[in-house]
Amino acid sequence: MGKDWGVTLWKTGKEDPRRVIHSIKVGFAMTLASSLCLLQKEEPPFRGIGQNTMWALITVVILLEFTAGATLRKGLNRIVGTVLGILLVLLVEHLSAHRPIPRAVFMGWTVFVFGAAATYVRFIPTIKKYDYGVLVFILTFGMILVANYQVDNTTSMVRDRFYTIAIGCGICLFLSLLILPTWSGDDLHKSTITKLEGLAKSVEACVGDYFGDAQRKEIQDELPKDSIDQNCIKVLDSKNTDETMALYASWEPRYQENCYKSPWQQYVKFGDALRRFGYTIMALHGCLHTEIQTPPSVRDLFKEQCTRLAEEVSKVLVELANSMRNRRHFSLEIISSHLHLALQDLNTALRSQTQILSDSMNRKDSRVSVTTSFEANSSPLRESKTAGPPEQRSKHVIASLEFSEALPFAAFASLLLEAVARLDHVIEEAKELGRIARFKEYKAGDDNVVTLEKTKSDFVEKYFPPSGTE
């Protein structure tokens, strides 16, 4: 048991050493906050701070988050909420002194009104970003107002608590922003790159598995079991994580010198495009596990074209990941030229091999006619002996249908083309992200990326027009 815990603790720190650094910073911050209890002097500005050390310690434990953006968000919200709560208490105290109604009744009425109003405001979508500040405002207002009713001189108490809370916030912001900071924006950026690379591996491995390509064995060996599902699921389940990191990153200072506008919401949009692309890859992977499969002889006719198309899709995703890693634009012409050719080759192969479908239909027609004749001459007793379980009978019936050999591949090819179509939207969102984040410009002869005018490539619409257009 102890050995398992030791291994778990070691792996946790090894996966992300920043966790160890954050733990040390929290311990150091708590030590600094606790040391305020040594300030027991009665002279300003230390008067009363030692007795309110608990508030500084609570502030440190609550505020100090893993990333700088989360800490800055909580810290500023706590300071603003505390100040507004104190100011409102002073206003209520001033008004209660000039009201004919009893003070207790007036205080109860104000607590109800402002508490209900502040809680209702939290439901407004634009206030969600400041939700923690609203909570602090409600708590500060209620606690100080009640304490002011029970204690005669609350001014010094409020002042001392505010000072200790401010000291706790200062400790958190100092350690989070200046001592080995962890930026949510960098985490979001790296997470997007990882998702692109994971999808690139999944596309190529999925098509390689479908065609049983031995040449793809190296790629498949690099990926653990069910890695295609794992890579796609990570992308599909990343919406809440992306939105949270984008929210925290919006509070962080713009430490990228070329970034004139916060691109974090564009990262969220780019993540949405990746998720739509990931849904298609998951469906494509599902074709590997269908009950009715296209014979290898039919698959081999389109193996080269589909494999090449998957390789080009993977190359586009890898190029997008590299351009994002280097914070540079990409050349749409360069990354799409080979993809266009691969689509043309697959289109030509599909058109030239349409005879396979008619051959498949003829074989199924003869099989159905023989089966029908046999069933007509068979006795009910023999039928009951050879029918087999219901699920097996269903598979035999489906297998005898027309085009049953070609339909599974048609579904696979259709999903592969849909993936290319959705890749077009991914490229557009990547271009917009590069424009907003001011990625580096392209220079001929090096690896930096080009800034292109926004033009819709429409890969699939160009080479696979809708029916009726010819």
Task: Characterize the biggest β-sheet.
Answer: none
By DSSP, the count of extended strands is: 0
Shape: elongated
The Rg value, from CA coordinates, equals 33 Å
Number of contiguous helices: 19
Query: Class by helix and strand content?
Result: mainly alpha
Uncertain spans: 213-223, 364-386, 448-470
- Tell me roughly what share of residues is in helical segments: over 70%
* Whole-number tally of structural domains: 2
Mean pLDDT: 77
H/E topology pattern: HHHHHHHHHHHHHHHHHHH
The amount of beta strand, in percent, is: under 5%
Separation of termini? 70 Å
Q: Could you walk me through the main structural features you see in this protein, from its secondary elements to its overall organization?
A:
Helices cover 72% and strands 0% of the residues. With 470 residues, the protein is mainly alpha-helical. The chain folds into two domains: 2-178; 184-463. The chain is elongated and about 95 Å long. The termini are far apart. The model is unreliable at 213-223, 364-386 and 448-470 (pLDDT under 50).
